[in-house]
TrEMBL record:
<feature type="transmembrane region" description="Helical">
    <location>
        <begin position="87"/>
        <end position="110"/>
    </location>
</feature>
<feature type="transmembrane region" description="Helical">
    <location>
        <begin position="186"/>
        <end position="212"/>
    </location>
</feature>
<keyword id="KW-0050">Antiport</keyword>
<feature type="transmembrane region" description="Helical">
    <location>
        <begin position="224"/>
        <end position="251"/>
    </location>
</feature>
<feature type="transmembrane region" description="Helical">
    <location>
        <begin position="333"/>
        <end position="355"/>
    </location>
</feature>
<feature type="transmembrane region" description="Helical">
    <location>
        <begin position="116"/>
        <end position="138"/>
    </location>
</feature>
<dbReference type="Pfam" id="PF00999">
    <property type="entry name" value="Na_H_Exchanger"/>
</dbReference>
<dbReference type="InterPro" id="IPR006153">
    <property type="entry name" value="Cation/H_exchanger_TM"/>
</dbReference>
<dbReference type="InterPro" id="IPR036318">
    <property type="entry name" value="FAD-bd_PCMH-like_sf"/>
</dbReference>
<dbReference type="InterPro" id="IPR005170">
    <property type="entry name" value="Transptr-assoc_dom"/>
</dbReference>
<protein>
    <submittedName>
        <fullName>Cell volume regulation protein A</fullName>
    </submittedName>
</protein>
<feature type="transmembrane region" description="Helical">
    <location>
        <begin position="6"/>
        <end position="25"/>
    </location>
</feature>
<feature type="transmembrane region" description="Helical">
    <location>
        <begin position="56"/>
        <end position="75"/>
    </location>
</feature>
<feature type="transmembrane region" description="Helical">
    <location>
        <begin position="272"/>
        <end position="289"/>
    </location>
</feature>
<keyword id="KW-1133">Transmembrane helix</keyword>
<keyword id="KW-0812">Transmembrane</keyword>
<keyword id="KW-0813">Transport</keyword>
Amino acid sequence: METFYIVTLILTALILLAAFSSLIAFRFGAPLLLLFLIIGLVAGVDGFGIEFSSNTAAYAIGSIALSIILFDSGYRTSPHSFKVAAVPALTLSTVGVLVTAGLFGLLATLLFDFSYLQGLLLGSIVASTDAAAVFFLLRIGGINIRDKVRSTLEVESGTNDPMAIFLTMALVGLVASDEKAVGLEIIWLFITQMGLGVLLGFGGGYVITFIARHLTIDRGLLPIVVLALSLVVFAFTGAVGGSGFLAVYVAGIVAGNRKLPATASISRFQDGMTWLAQIIMFLVLGLLATPSDFLVILIPSVVLALFLVFIARPIAVWLCLLPLDFTQRETTFVAWVGLRGAVSILLAILPVMGGLENGHIYFNATFIVVMLSLAIQGWTIKPLAKALGLIVPPRMGAIEKFELDLPGTANHELLSYRVVAGSPVVNGERVPRWAMPSLVIRDGKSMRYQYAGRLREGDHVYLFIAPGYSRLLDRLFAERTTLAEDDSEFFGMFTISPARPAEELDAAYGPHLIAESDKGKTIAEVIEARIGSKPEYGDRVRIGNVILIVRDTDDNERISAVGISLEAVAPATRLPIFLNLRELSPAFREIMLRVRAKRRAVRAKVKEAEAAKENAG
């Protein structure tokens, strides 16, 4: 019995230590998930001496934790984000994973004296980006970048895990049976797993929504029911031969974008459970590793990690985004945000469980690759986004807002705002009556809004509003911001009314900027047509040598202000890399012109030298 209490004490102490390490991460910008992993290593057999060697238990714990993370990732992904990013993200999560695994496998074959099938297996293990790492850095790390780029990275990280898992499992079976070719049965298995994953994910998401809406249960239990149902979707899909990880992610997207009771409670509960799942998964995988075994393969593993970060991932991303309208800077950023994490280490357990020869090499090499990826990329993502000019200037300052649940199917939302310094309501602007302000908490005392007088900094205001109107109030309660130093650089030096005819651009900056199909449209309509979806703050559209930038949108999500930049954004590099097909043609043409000019210069010098010899003779 004493052993039980000691083990419980140690495990909870590790979880608390990992949770408190977030203070270091937020203070110094350290990759938080790397700290979780290091804590597990330090507590393990080569550190404090905690011995944990059960690969089966580690894989089971990691799989359940990953399913929780993926469900929450899908739950927080809006249909708009998926629509904007579907094509590039799904291309990256399929073709990108294959290209990354193939390139990585080639080098692994040389460095570890593997067969190519064995090298491809190691490449498949590290081919997927980590959803937990990407979501943490983009959503919690304060990196506010263009919606298309952010959505692409988030959707990719949520959808490429099933592809990597499928490849790894298939290749473990092939290597174990010493088969040399991939048959049609592998292709059929892929179609079956992904097809069932999508179908059962959609079905499971609607079942979760139906049960959550019609189940009469204590509100404190509802988040637990939703999470348990998501795990049912994961387990059932896997049991019938589908991809449970893909199914739980799709179920999260479906359930997260349907109106559920106690939405705020569900979100808060899932937020806590996701943090707990990340901590447990990284700690368990850290405990499973034996750092003293790393030394034997340290040098080739470091070479592989650098190859993955600087060559394999960038090439895969460039090939996938080549036909799409991503700028060089955006492609550069997507290529860099390819963090590897717990999923790769989790997959590295499979060769060991499958009894493959030198299975420990797969695990140890993957562990080193993941740690270097988190260290190199995790620490540099925000500085790189700034250097590339992808940080979108904030349109409003600090705001503290809380959503409170109303019972049943109420047609109003109850919001609570904390009044911050510099907000319009502090400066005398009144809250509109349609917002139905009800209560003000000031200095710990409650009073009716009508008797509170002018709102003060630190007040908490409670309001009932109709769904969809919170954006109007956000601006009233948000701190006013001054224009960022790079505001004009990002949005351009000039502004133009989005209601103006697009043909005016021809007259001012043309000729022949506007296509025949766009004549008769307004500037806003041209931008919306080029974007192909709902316009977002900071969206950019290039028309010839003119760049139109969405400076703001109104409460109906229509473009209300447009900036103009007459100078193309400076390329991330002068080399002809990370360009899309539209940009490659003039780039190669310019290179060929330079090459021909140099050739002509060389030939002219040769002729001059020959002429000088003849004259001397």
